[in-house]
Amino acid sequence: MPELSVVVPVYNEEKTIEAFLATMRPILDGITADHEIIFSLDPSSDRTEELILAARAQDPRIKLLRFSRRFGQPAATWAGLSYSSGQAVVVIDCDLQDPPSLIPEMHRLWREEGYRVVIPQRRSREGENFVKKAVAYLGYWFINKTAVVEIPRNTGDFRLLDRRVVEELLRLKESHGFLRGLTAVVGFRTKLLPFDRLARHDGQGKYNRLTGSILIGFNGIVAFSGALLRLTGIIGFSMAALALLAALLVLLGKIFGWYDFASGLATLGILLLFLTGCQLVGLGILGAYIGRIYEETKLRPRFIVELAEGFGQRGEGQDG
Q: Which CATH class is domain 4-207+301-314?
């Protein structure tokens, strides 16, 4: 069992692979020679796989998982955790926004101070526009206001996990692996490590675009809170009260002769459209939960590995 595993989800990252490895290798060698780097690859249209295999030819501690189709970043991360064997596991993206230079301190906190989970926490988010920062802030605010567990703000999947924590995470059978939330669910002694997030090394992120961040955040809200269902009920009661108030105003209009107001079909039409819109919003939220139940009952694998380089007999055909 290696001392340290590093899990790297990748998709169309040919511009960053070489720089990532050039940065990561001396850092990991400075910690321990007994390590492995696991690239979890969604099938890519560029030279990402070729570059990883070329690096593996020079260093067998570099390993590759390639999926049968694109499963997305959460599944890629989960696959890396499933195939990792280190006493501690670091999850990190390869764009160098999350600095590998933090890993020695994360390792020290784990090894010397006994923390089972070490999570770098962003003090700043260089290279992100106002919209993405606002979405992140609102997402963390809403999740922590409604979730049954507290998820640290301004954190990503970049973290160090003790082997015991990884094993407990892998016991969870949820189809949607929201790592930030599930780490909080399993608990254990946790340390936050503040840092300043850098701009991306090169190109644009293929995983963490705004739409992807919103979908992952929505997944976290649905998976860790029933607040949206409760909100639907509150909106329903509010709309019912508003409808009764409107009916009272129409009645008063009839009594006092406010015909321009009381007999206007436009007012009634707007009210009906408003109530119908609220019903559709409620049905949409309810549908999100029902859809989640449907997916969980199917028990589909989180990922299917087509190629596993460096894992012996374990790799071919394994799934989550």
A: alpha beta
